[in-house]
Amino acid sequence: MIPRSCAVLALALFAASASAEELIRVLVSAESREVLELRLEDYVAGVVAGEMPASFPPEALKAQAVAARSFALTRKIDAQAAGRAWDIGASVLAQVFSRSPGPAARAAADATAGEVLVMEMEPVEAYFHASCGGRTEGGLAALGRDLPYLAPVECNRCGRAPGVRWTLRLAPAELAKAAGLARAATSARVAARSTTGRAEKVEVQAGDRRAVLAATDLRQRLGFSRLPSLAFDVRLEKGEFVIEGRGQGHGAGLCQWGAASFAREGKTYREILLHYYQGTDVVRMY
Ligand SMILES: [Zn+2]
What we know:
Layout: H1 4-17, E1 23-29, E2 34-39, H2 40-51, H3 58-82, E3 88-89, H4 103-111, E4 115-119, E5 122-123, E6 128-129, H5 139-143, E7 165-170, H6 172-178, E8 187-193, E9 199-206, E10 209-214, H7 215-222, E11 232-237, E12 240-246, E13 254-255, H8 256-264, H9 269-276, E14 281-284
Parallel strand pairs: 1-3, 6-13
Antiparallel strand pairs: 1-2, 4-5, 4-14, 7-12, 8-9, 9-10, 11-12
Helix pairs in contact: 1-3, 2-3, 2-4, 3-4, 3-8, 3-9
The structure holds zinc ion (ZN).
């Protein structure tokens, strides 16, 4: 991350020269080093298509478009400062994008063309996730990013999202392996929680051996899709560990299914963005 003053200056320089023809270089494949250069607005439409169902309400798609554009700009500014040959990756770690966005995604990008989410004129790292399960998570706990606009907020609108309630059953040997223990696990508990109640540390016991690991590491080792979020409890039941949780994703920033509910309630994309990213503003750069 580059110093804040540089980011502000970079944005000022960027805004002075920005146009609808603004380009972005996407690292399509880290292995082949393939870099695709395309118009920023085409990229934004591609991220909306890659990250949100086309059936979502237009205001939710527009919120996603502004979030995607803002996040991309932070990476572009970083790349310019670091002299990198590409601006942003194309995996779930950055933003997934489709090379052939449909009309709904295209319309969301067009309707918000040039609009960026900022805090004090600095574009924000507008992280987002599928469903928070009730309350979003802070940036530090979720991603190690201690950013003022990634503060936990109430959502309470994603209760009907697919997979928002989930259960993972693990054999004692598998949980032990994920915790780095040789013998089968005999007990497990969440040993520390964030302010929103999500797991921060998990303690796993195997006989007289004990391991305490970061919940984010457990999620990575088990697989992000198998352990969909850190809002969970764990218990031993009939010889297997049952992990029950809610929400899909890291939980920071915009909750996509919550945004869809807000849109159906009549909220605009600006209202949706300013709810999930507190203290920010939407500005038009070109
Ligand atoms: Zn939510």
